[in-house]
Write a structure and sequence with these properties.
mainly alpha; elongated; 0% strand; 151 residues
Length: 151
């Protein structure tokens, strides 16, 4: 009995921890992304890249090698930012996918309703036209019979 109670407490504690993590981690990642892609961070990254390039050139690196190495240096910053964006984006994409499915289901439902209404209306109009044709045919036949009787 004590084991079950302890297990329930552990489960509840884990639930609380996961709840906090699910709220706090995305906010932390967003903060990091904002700091990595801020105007100030961009200036700092530019200065760092320029200093890196300058050091390579002063060390006698050929121009093309220095440029490629500097591009690689900068790409590490942007790659890190992309990884963080994806981490936050996955959480959003799951929610977006769920919302997208709901919207799709609702749109399909509305389309089916409208299609059903239209078909119903077309069938009714078609049926009405057929009835009118039949009545007109019967009137003609009756009129022809009356003409024959008069002759």
């Amino acid at each position: 009995m004590a084991g079950e109670k302890e297990e329930k407490e552990d489960v509840e504690e884990l639930r609380e921890v996961l709840s906090v993590i699910s709220k706090e981690v995305p906010a932390l990642i967003k903060g990091i992304i904002a700091s990595v892609f801020s105007e100030e961070a961009g200036r700092d990254m530019g200065r760092a890249a320029a200093a890196f390039y300058k050091e390579l050139k002063e060390a006698g690196m050929p121009e093309d090698v220095a440029v490629k190495m500097t591009e690689g240096y900068i790409s590490t910053f942007t790659s890190l930012g992309e990884i963080m964006k994806r981490a936050v984006g996955k959480q959003k994409s799951i929610e977006d996918e769920r919302i997208g499915k709901e919207i799709s289901k609702e749109v399909s439902k509305k389309v089916m309703e409208k299609l059903s209404e239209k078909l119903s209306k077309e069938i009714s109009e078609e049926t009405a036209k057929e009835i009118e044709k039949e009545l007109a045919k019967q009137r003609r036949e009756k009129s022809e019979e009356e003409e024959e009787d008069e002759d």
